[in-house]
């Protein structure tokens, strides 16, 4: 071998070893982007560094991924009464359809890291996918004659998974409703007494009763900031027996006395506000924390955000500034301190904002205003030890897409179904944050009316 060839070999070795060391370091460290085969979808990019959340076993194939999807999304699809669950396709009757498209596996329609084929909601099938199994729909339904397949799942008609507000039965119960109901208001939140019924609440340590300012239990070593004590005194926590130590003192292994922590995390809040914390960790605001990644910041976002907020870390206090833990500011002003897209910025031109403005000034009744949170964090019922409690949904993504999810959880408390379907189907109106009347009309209610009319004629024969 010539000396020249030897040098090539040495170069080759150095480069290969160098790359191997670099890749191993990447694998052990947090930044694993180099291994990603492509851009991750809008739904998952925040947690793409937590490869193991989906690829829990690098050698495991489809089944492992399927299990991961179900772990995170299974209960949501169950609540949504999924129209196309796996069980439908394991039924031998539908084997011919499975042969066309294996709908038993989530990845058939939602693969990852393939930006070039990814549509809204992480769908990686063409927009006429319904055609594969429903090409004969017009045979039993003359009303569907001539409809294009890409329109099946556009707003207001059908969805693949969640059809709770679009079933024919449901539509037929809500024919002919007015645009706006006479009583246009949302359900009130539960009052403080319900906390006594939650068995995991630390009631022995912090009985629910108002505290006085001289009862604040901070240790002497902590700077006494009169503003903090005043804010605490003015608001719900002092009124409900939640002392400084409830949030600031944490037990540490090996120490008898709990230690004062200056900046408590969401984990502390979770001891008393379990549902809110769970919701927060399931959506775009908290999903990184749930995977033990660093908190989300507006600077990392794909959506438009205010420049001034780029470094702010998302936590409970992003919306509920300590120590007032205000819920009204949290519902609009906090959101607008970060969000900067056309829809968010148009909200203040809407009649909904007028209603909200009146409510917070005491010129209109409680629960009649429509804030960002009214739509994105609707109040919902949860059960604790058999008791029903009304809380705010803290997962902003729970009813976001497809937007018909908002019909039942939000709009129908104040509007008729027909008006609401039209408004949500009008993409431009969504951009303008509902500051006008809808300019689109969806015919599903008319179709139901016609079908019921026809049935009556037949029955009457
Ligand atoms: C939210 C879930 C999720 C996360 C997080 C995730 N992936 Fe994936 N990944 C998938 C899915 C789904 C597929 C597609 C599998 C299929 O179509 O069979 C995939 C495919 C891949 C493939 C291609 C495999 C093949 O068969 O072509 C590679 C490589 C990959 N992922 C690497 C990574 C790495 C590295 C990370 C972390 C940096 C990561 N993934 C994070 C869900 C995820
Ligand atoms: C570690 C938990 C986790 C795993 C595993 C996971 N997801 Fe997700 N997924 C999320 C979160 C959190 C979001 C964002 C919040 C939301 O949209 O609900 C999301 C978003 C989505 C979206 C987009 C929803 C939208 O409105 O845009 C789809 C579709 C989806 N996931 C499907 C899947 C599929 C299919 C798998 C399995 C390959 C999977 N997910 C695995 C947590 C997970
Ligand atoms: C045959 C294709 C297909 C299969 C299989 C499929 N999806 Fe979907 N998925 C869709 C379509 C289409 C949408 C868009 C919204 C709609 O029409 O419901 C969607 C939307 C979603 C969404 C966001 C909207 C919502 O209703 O929450 C999630 C989350 C989701 N799918 C998860 C899953 C999971 C988890 C699986 C596996 C259990 C799965 N999907 C299997 C086609 C599919
Ligand atoms: C892989 C095959 C397959 C695909 C793709 C598919 N469906 Fe279905 N769908 C079925 C089966 C099977 C049923 C059960 C009823 C039947 O046998 O027709 C069904 C039933 C329905 C129903 C009746 C409601 C119910 O809960 O029974 C609706 C509405 C529907 N599909 C809409 C859609 C839409 C919209 C799409 C496209 C986004 C779609 N389907 C894509 C197989 C499929
Ligand atoms: C409901 C939970 C809660 C209660 C009760 C509470 N705090 Fe805090 N406190 C927090 C949180 C959360 C932070 C961190 C805020 C941040 O990260 O910006 C904080 C921060 C602080 C800080 C350090 C940051 C600063 O602003 O200087 C001090 C000091 C403090 N609290 C004192 C008190 C005192 C004194 C009391 C009782 C009168 C009290 N806290 C009651 C949650 C609480
Ligand atoms: C020891 C239990 C406990 C802890 C810990 C706790 N809270 Fe509370 N919180 C309560 C109780 C009790 C109320 C009163 C509920 C009511 O008035 O309806 C309350 C009320 C609230 C409210 C509503 C305030 C209002 O004006 O209606 C918010 C927001 C809140 N807490 C956020 C937090 C956050 C954020 C944390 C963590 C930093 C936290 N809480 C920690 C028990 C706790
Ligand atoms: C994106 C902003 C935002 C974040 C982040 C947030 N909240 Fe809230 N929270 C709100 C809004 C808005 C309301 C009032 C909702 C209403 O009036 O219906 C609220 C209400 C509450 C309430 C009183 C109503 C109820 O559900 O009982 C509690 C308690 C609460 N939040 C706790 C928390 C905790 C704990 C965290 C962190 C895990 C947190 N919040 C994070 C916006 C937020
Ligand atoms: C501290 C900044 C901050 C505050 C305050 C905040 N958000 Fe967000 N929000 C974000 C970031 C960052 C994302 C993730 C955006 C992305 O992934 O591109 C997000 C995501 C969302 C999403 C999901 C968007 C999607 O496409 O999946 C909704 C809806 C949302 N926020 C609504 C609200 C509402 C309503 C409020 C007030 C109650 C609020 N946010 C308060 C920073 C904030
Ligand atoms: C009347 C109900 C309503 C109100 C009020 C409202 N939104 Fe929305 N918001 C929606 C609907 C519907 C969508 C569209 C979901 C879809 O179809 O993609 C949406 C979408 C969003 C998104 C996601 C945008 C994207 O491109 O992914 C963000 C972020 C958001 N809203 C924030 C806000 C903020 C901040 C406010 C208050 C300033 C607000 N919204 C007020 C109903 C509302
Ligand atoms: C708390 C009750 C309430 C909720 C919830 C609510 N709205 Fe409204 N909305 C109203 C009232 C009241 C008006 C009429 C205001 C007026 O005419 O002054 C209105 C007006 C509207 C308008 C007409 C605006 C105009 O300029 O004429 C649209 C469109 C609209 N709402 C859509 C929606 C949609 C879509 C949802 C659900 C995502 C929703 N609203 C949720 C109470 C509500």
Structure, briefly:
By secondary structure, the chain is mostly helical.
What does this structure look like?
The structure is a single chain. The strands form 2 sheets. Strands 1-2 form a two-stranded antiparallel sheet. It contains 23 helices and 4 strands. The chain has helices at residues 3-28, 62-79, 86-90, 95-100, 131-134, 137-140, 168-173, 226-234, 236-239, 244-248, 266-270, 274-282, 287-290, 316-319, 328-331, 333-336, 342-346, 351-360, 372-376, 405-409, 417-425, 427-431, 444-459; strands at residues 249-250, 259-260, 379-384, 387-392. One heme C binds at residues 216, 218, 222-223, 225, 228-229, 232, 237, 242, 244, 246-248, 262-264, 317, 322-323.
């Amino acid at each position: 071998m010539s000396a020249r060839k030897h040098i090539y070999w040495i170069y080759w070795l150095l480069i290969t070893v160098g790359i191997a060391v670099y890749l191993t370091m990447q694998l052990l460290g947090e930044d694993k982007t180099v291994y990603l085969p492509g851009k991750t979808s809008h739904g998952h990019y925040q947690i793409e560094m937590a490869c193991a959340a989906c690829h829990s076993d690098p050698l495991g194939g489809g089944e492992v991924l399927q299990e991961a999807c179900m772990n995170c999304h299974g209960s949501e699809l169950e609540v949504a009464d999924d129209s196309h669950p796996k069980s439908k396709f394991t039924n031998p009757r539908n084997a011919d359809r499975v042969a066309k498209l294996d709908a038993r596996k989530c990845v058939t329609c939602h693969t990852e890291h393939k930006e070039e084929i990814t549509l809204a909601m992480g769908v990686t099938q063409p927009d006429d996918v319904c055609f594969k199994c429903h090409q004969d729909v017009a045979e039993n339904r003359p009303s569907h004659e001539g409809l294009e397949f890409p329109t099946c799942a556009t707003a207001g008609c059908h969805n693949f998974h969640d059809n709770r507000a679009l079933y024919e039965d449901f539509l037929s119960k809500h024919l002919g409703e007015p645009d706006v109901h006479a009583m246009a208001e949302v359900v009130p939140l539960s009052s403080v007494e319900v906390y006594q019924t939650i068995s995991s609440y630390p009631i022995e340590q912090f009985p629910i009763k108002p505290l006085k300012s001289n009862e604040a239990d901070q240790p002497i070593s902590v700077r006494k900031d009169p503003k903090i004590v005043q804010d605490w005194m003015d608001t719900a926590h002092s009124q409900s027996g939640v002392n400084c130590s409830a949030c600031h003192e944490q037990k540490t292994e090996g120490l008898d006395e709990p230690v004062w922590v200056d900046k408590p995390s969401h984990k502390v809040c979770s001891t008393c506000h379990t549902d809110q914390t769970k919701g927060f960790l399931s959506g775009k605001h908290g999903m990184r924390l749930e995977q033990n990644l660093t908190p989300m910041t507006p600077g990392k976002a794909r959506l438009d955000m205010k420049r001034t907020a780029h470094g702010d870390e998302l936590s409970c206090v992003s919306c509920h500034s300590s120590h007032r833990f205000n819920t009204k500011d949290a519902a609009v002003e906090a959101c607008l301190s970060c969000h900067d897209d056309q829809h968010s910025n148009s909200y203040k031109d809407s009649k909904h904002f007028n209603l909200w403005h009146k409510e917070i000034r005491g010129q209109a009744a409680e629960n009649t205003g429509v804030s960002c949170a009214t739509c994105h964090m609707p109040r919902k019922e949860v059960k604790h030890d058999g008791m029903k409690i009304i809380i705010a949904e803290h997962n902003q993504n729970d009813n976001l897409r497809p937007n018909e999810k908002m019909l039942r959880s939000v709009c129908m408390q104040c509007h008729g179904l027909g008006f609401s379907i039209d408004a949500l189907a009008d993409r431009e109106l969504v951009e303008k944050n509902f500051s006008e009347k809808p300019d689109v009309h969806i015919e599903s209610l008319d179709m139901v009316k016609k079908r019921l009319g026809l049935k009556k004629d037949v029955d009457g024969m």
